[in-house]
Fold this protein.
Amino acid sequence: MKVSQLFGKTLKDAPKDVENRTAAQMIRAGYIDQTGAGIYTFLPLGHRVLEKINTIIREEMDAIDGQEILMPALHPASLWKTTGRWDVDVMYKTKSQTGQDYGLGWTHEEIVTPLAKKFINSYKDLPKSVYQIQVKFRDEIRAKSGLLRTREFIMKDMYSFHSDNADLDKYYEKVKQAYVKILDRLGIKDKTYLTYASGGDFSKYSHEYQTLIEAGEDIIYVCDKCKLAVNNEIIDEIKGCPECGNKDLKEKKASETANIFKLGNRFTEAFGFKYLDKEGVQQIPVMGCYGFGPSRAMGTVAEALSDDKGLVWPDEIAPYRVYLLSIGEEAFQEASKLSDELEKAGVEVLFDDTNDSAGEKFARADLLGIPVRITVSPKTLETGGFEYKKRTGENSEIVPEDSIIEKIKNG
Amino acid sequence: MKVSQLFGKTLKDAPKDVENRTAAQMIRAGYIDQTGAGIYTFLPLGHRVLEKINTIIREEMDAIDGQEILMPALHPASLWKTTGRWDVDVMYKTKSQTGQDYGLGWTHEEIVTPLAKKFINSYKDLPKSVYQIQVKFRDEIRAKSGLLRTREFIMKDMYSFHSDNADLDKYYEKVKQAYVKILDRLGIKDKTYLTYASGGDFSKYSHEYQTLIEAGEDIIYVCDKCKLAVNNEIIDEIKGCPECGNKDLKEKKASETANIFKLGNRFTEAFGFKYLDKEGVQQIPVMGCYGFGPSRAMGTVAEALSDDKGLVWPDEIAPYRVYLLSIGEEAFQEASKLSDELEKAGVEVLFDDTNDSAGEKFARADLLGIPVRITVSPKTLETGGFEYKKRTGENSEIVPEDSIIEKIKNG
């Protein structure tokens, strides 16, 4: 892809009404655009990042036998009245021409539970786990922090169904491992803490994955020994590390990247969902639910890894692998050739073919945060090579023409 | 994937409240589930079909320089008031806790036009073409015909921006060619007619791609000579084939699979969107818009190709390539082995590992409409092979064990 052709331009100035540092960077860099307060468009660069995050999440959910489905966003009111949650204030509501009331989905227990009830009749049908990656809506009074708190967002929500709590517990641990793999691939594993939080109506505790970032809206208390944390909302009740009893917990600002809940029979009971056990006796299945928001994760990764110069994307979710730029006319021809060769070799490359100055191109490369920058200039051509620099590295090096692809692929 | 593990079961009976034949088949076969009138969930099988349709559309849009983005579904009212379309009755509306009014997107001119205005300032920035594959909502008074007329659906909508009408015309023809490729890959090219329709407020005519199916809600008049058609809504005005003047047009029932519109400056003007031409003079760009609904296309393909026994999916969008079943205990072991081997060879296989009778398994294979059925039985094992049958073929044949993978791959 050529920078001149890309839909979405690098803007000279940071947008004025965006207080979040990395949201401003993403807007300036042409990753996202603010359609309204808390409502964003993903431009081609941002869409590529989002899709790569989705792919990672899909792979890890598939690996633990999650089956992908797609549920609707428009929810008939009757389903929410069944569980007594129709009046939750974060739900947008709409009345149709036909008089029917609908809520816009901010979570999907009310859809997935009666759905699973149709297909799960016997212990032989259990366990089952389904997930979707889908748009969700929340009527937030204050949208803020860029992609961290929005009125419309993309969510991966998974729901599992089990014959009993022991089976749920086993699967719950599997999901924990899968989430650590996702966090690792997103480059935020080290900054993210498994955090004990309130279980709400459903169970004693739930678990959150809290990532340490300055823009975070949550306060957590970290136990350095166990790499665990406790959410502010239950710290008075729990009073120390739930694992080792350590009272010396450190207060930190963090943002919730994911959460997992044991729902027990809260929803299965409400929908009269039963299965026949081995003895032919009717039992109520128990559920778990597991959220991971790709669009919020994009914002969190940006917050956690970016610097003053701009964004820094980890290899697996960067929109392109290489940012290629040239200085001078002759170098432009060489860079064009290299761009074609890289594409042929399956390397995703964004070629800065603009007439901007070298300084502007270097600044854009830093702002966009693509992992590898390749510069072609009269100086590098003299040496028969190209300048190779990692976004996260201090130094650059000259790499000969015939080994540049290998260098890009293997670092 | 094993049938016993699949989320979504073959139902014994057709659902009672679904009047559309293939929607009933898709529900019985576990492809979709009706969450509410005109609101569906895509189960794992249906989700695979939908994703494959999306992939085909993406590939063909990328091939004509469409750039993928993702716009929001929640639209601030102010944007729709700018174009005077806030009061369109098919738009669901919601008022937030903050007092702000939103509409749910049923089309995206009101979002994409001010977006493009931010990035297109000069003739050098033109042309540009962006698309998204996204959920849309329509407050339909009567939802019917399964996936053909729903209140929530998936839509690919592309918007192009041009310096003048000549450039728009050129791109419009490119999109036509891309759409024919998509229709071909979906297996409905032969049944689909480029159809002249009303241009609405925007231009004299628009074009629809109308597919001949019994459940179709539209009436079109087909010119056999030109493989063109005219929509009922303009037949009185146009009175014959717009290409050859032929007055002997044939009346047919059809369903709109896609549509393309020249929007002219209807939206660019409303949003005060201008660019500087080569002479430095401000001009208003013109737009085209190009819809193709993946979820409706899924319903249309089902309607166009299925038979009384069940669904028939073309190779490129079938959820699996092979439906594998066995008869008897020994054959089950062999089938399990074959299933593993196929998966290793990269062949998508759905293995019917249930205890159902041979008759039930054959009926399920026909209902699900997967392109190739492989049967392992004592009889086939005696011959050292497997029974191979195409869903669309009358006859089966025995294929030796060592050439079965090649046979599946090459047909």
The longest strand of chain A covers residues 250-264. DSSP finds twelve helices and 21 strands in chain A.
